[in-house]
Amino acid sequence: MVTADQALADATYGLAVLAAEKQAGGTPATDEQLDALLDAATLIARDVPATS
Predict the structure, then answer these.
(1) Residues 18, 36 contacting (CB under 8 angstroms)
(2) How far is CA 44 from the centre of its chain?
(3) 3-class DSSP assignment, residue 51
(4) pLDDT score recorded for residue 38
(5) How does pLDDT run across 12-50, given as a tens digit for each residue?
(6) Which one of 1, 31, 33, 48 is most buried, by most CB atoms within 10 A?
(7) What is the pTM of this model?
(8) Range 4-43 burial, b when 16+ CB lie within 10 A, else e
C-alpha cells in the first residue's frame, strides 16, 4: 500500500519531470499532461476545507 507521503513524493517528482520537459521546449503531450495536472489540482483544492 502506498502512503500519502509516498504518493505526494511521486506526484512531486512527476511534476518536476514535466516542468523540465516544458523548459526544454515541451511537446503537445507535455502540455496536455500539465493541463490534466492543473485540472486535478483544482479539483483537489476545491475539496480541501479552508483553514484560516
Answers:
(1) no
(2) 11
(3) coil
(4) 84
(5) 888 889 889 989 998 999 899 888 888 888 887 787 776
(6) 33
(7) 0.65
(8) eeeeeeeeeeeeeebeebeeeeeeeebeebbeeeeeeeee
